[in-house]
Amino acid sequence: MPHIDMVPLESVAEEALLTLMNEPQVRAFMPLLPVPFTAEQCRAFVAAKQTLWAENGYGPFAFIIGGAFAGWGGLQDEDGDADFALVLSPKFWGWGRRIFMRVADHAFSEWKIPSITILFPPNRTNSGALRRVGFIADGESTIGGETFLKFRLTREAWLERTKIRA
Questions:
Q1: Is-contact 71 89, C-beta < 8 A?
Q2: Shortest CA distance to 45 belongs to which of 104, 107, 87, 95?
Q3: What is the pTM of this model?
Q4: What average pLDDT does range 134-145 have in this prediction?
Q5: pLDDT tens profile 29-84
Q6: Measured between alpha carbons, how far is 45 from 62 in angstroms, rounded to an integer?
Q7: How many distinct helices (H) and strands (E) make up the chain?
Q8: Burial of 135 (0-12, 13-18, 19+ CB in 10 A)
Q9: How far apart, in whole angstroms, are the C-alpha atoms of residue 148 and residue 122?
Q10: Partner of 86 for a Cys bridge, out of 73, 104, 131, 150, CB 3.0 to 4.6 A?
Q11: From the CB of residue 123, how many other CB atoms can be counted at a distance below 10 Å?
Q12: How far apart are CA 34 and CA 27, in angstroms?
């Protein structure tokens, strides 16, 4: 099985990010993404994500699987919560859980973050994978005029689940 490398987002070629962010299957789950996502917006996006690292001590990574750019994701501050975002190329959609586990391990073990949230657009109806990892429903959140379903995983629940798996 290929290894997942977590690298700085700015190390990925702009063209690779543009291709991902303009992929129709990806855009279907990103209601806040401008149409089309331009090179200028891409540069501003990467700069904003770099700022998150400086401000919070965490932020998004680019994920490289088997030498190929698979997508980006990680933690972003959202109203005081460490919110997990993940945007993968459709050919890597089966990798989400493994990527999340790597990021969550960093968040809870190294960064000592008390909880992680995930915001799902309402058209993402399958939250079963989130519940299996230990997320619980935590209301809704509105961003940019769009409503998202919020789920939360606490550090305590994560440590308990990973202890059981060990």
A1: yes
A2: 87
A3: 0.89
A4: 91
A5: 887 887 899 999 999 999 999 999 999 999 999 999 999 999 999 999 998 999 99
A6: 13
A7: 6, 7
A8: buried
A9: 6
A10: 73
A11: 8
A12: 9
